[in-house]
Amino acid sequence: MSLLFGRSETRAMDPWFANGDDGPGVRAVSPERAVTLPYVFAALRHIVDYGSTLPIDCFRRKDESTRERITPPQLIRGLDDLGRPGSVSWLGQGFFGIAARGNAVGWVSDVDGNGLPTVVNWLRSSDWSFDETTRQWYAFGAPVPSSRIFHVPWIVPDGCTLGLSPLGLFIATIKAGLSAQDYSDIARGGGIPPSVLRNTAKTLSPKEAGVAKARAKAAFARGEPFVTGNDWEFEATAIPPNHAQFIETLKLTASQIAAIYGIDRTEIGGEAANSLTYTTEEHRLINRAANMTPYIERIEQAISRRLPSKQFVKLNIDAKIRADIKTRTDVIGEQLADGRLSLNEARALDDMPPVAGGDRHNMPAPVMQPITRAEETP
Fold first, then answer.
1. How far apart are CA 268 and CA 291, in angstroms?
2. Taking the domains of the chain in order of start, what are their residue ranges?
3. How far is CA 355 from the centre of its chain?
4. Dihedral class, residue 140 (left if φ above 0, else alpha if ψ from -120 to 50, else beta)
5. CB 63 within 8 A of CB 54
6. Is the pTM of this model over 0.70?
7. How far is CA 18 from CA 75, 126, 136, 167, 182, in A?
8. Coil, strand, or helix at residue 129?
9. What confidence score (pLDDT) does residue 357 get?
């Protein structure tokens, strides 16, 4: 079983969640199938929505400890041009590629005079592949140089180039959740039958029983009562206690999916862990930002590597962390007092216009040191 999405995707090999080519009615556990599990979809939605809506800030390093904000380079600025997807959609596709397949792969379709990319379009998984042996990239079935590929991997094993696929690695976990989700699907013909239709007048032949079952199944699937013949007895079947554990399976799957993606289980509908720790909204936002940092930094580094020397981007996580009004006011007041912010910089945080003379920074008063008399010197 391959754990990497290259020329072929990871497939499950049991009779139900098997390769769709194995016969009618069987299902493949692919990223497209896996996202139908609510907890997987919720995890991907959380990662994509959080990462893609962060503001993109662009900087240039002046020296080892100083940076200055700059006008976004064409690679970033062009995302919002007419006919382009927009920065939110573009970032979202990148985060989805990492979270769903372990690799976000883009095609560099345009470069500037220095050979640096100005337009990158994300590729579908079927449009690209990579040979780990020859280290050769393929796009649309043809070999291409790595300079034309924009690659953001997830967790990369030593000696490899492609990232591991989270959905490929944990097929067993996802299958358990999908099986529990499908438990009550009458149309699939599995699980405990939701009801029993019994003829009390005669013993049915296999053919007669098959016809009755097919008609009943069709009626039940439409949410309609089934009526036929006479001397029929209908019995609704309760799920036995030992089979009701599929509900617990769904809960367990939520915790496992959250652990796989490194996010809080409550973000995807799981139950919070029992704890006496009081968590404020600000703490929750800080925890969410910390969990998303590994994904965000991968995107940042991939973009920064394709920018001119000393230029880099940062996705502004601070924009997502909003303290309560009192705490926010106190913090900004302290930053004004010690000179870390000017008045206009503080006003800009609340989308307020600058004022005359507001660019001055306060200079903290020097700390007074006690004078030591000569005779006190040992």
1. 13
2. 1-191+239-322, 193-238, 324-361
3. 41
4. left
5. no
6. no
7. 41, 19, 30, 15, 15
8. strand
9. 87
* 3 state DSSP class of 326: helix
DSSP string, 173-213: HHHHHHHHHHTT-GGGT-SS-SEEEEESSSPPPHHHHHHHH
**CB 40 within 8 Å of CB 167:** yes
Query: For 27, what's the count of Cα atoms within 13 Å in the CB-facing half-sphere?
Result: 16
Angle at 177 between CA 174 and CA 179, to 5 degrees: 105
Please check the confidence at residue 190 and state whether its pLDDT lies above 50.
no
- pLDDT tens for 150-162 read 999 999 999 999 9
Residue showing tokens 């439409």 = 222
Residue type at position 264: D
Q: What is the largest CA-CA distance in the chain?
A: 120
Tell me the mean pLDDT in the region 168-175.
68
- Taking alpha carbons only, the member of 135, 154, 171 closest to residue 31 is 171
The whole-angstrom separation of Cα 338 and Cα 200 is 89
- Tens digits of residue pLDDT in 236-271: 545 444 444 545 555 667 888 888 899 988 888 777
**Residue 106 CB: number of other CB atoms within 10 A?**
23
